[in-house]
Design a protein that fits this description.
Blueprint: E1 6-7, H1 10-14, H2 21-28, E2 37-39, E3 50-53, E4 59-62, E5 67-68
């Protein structure tokens, strides 16, 4: 599946079969690596449950209901 935008939902986090390929690849990267999409694990209280590590903007937080695109990783 090669969608250009994907909305993060509770159901999609439980069953990742609906994820586009680019997001699956980002999930499989090592934590903290540029281009990774990961659960938040830094212990900081926040409404953002997931983090995308980017080259130019650093770590960017996302929460359920947010839409993510391949451009989110730049």
């Amino acid at each position: 599946m090669n969608k250009f935008a994907f909305t993060i939902t509770k159901d999609s986090m439980k069953d990742k079969t609906s994820w586009p390929e680019w997001l699956q690849k980002a999930w499989e990267k090592d934590w903290g690596q540029v281009g990774s999409f990961e659960p938040r694990h830094d212990g900081i209280a926040s409404s953002h449950n997931y983090i995308v590590h980017t080259k130019f903007r650093g770590a960017v937080g996302y929460k359920l209901g947010d839409t993510i695109t391949p451009a989110s990783f730049v």
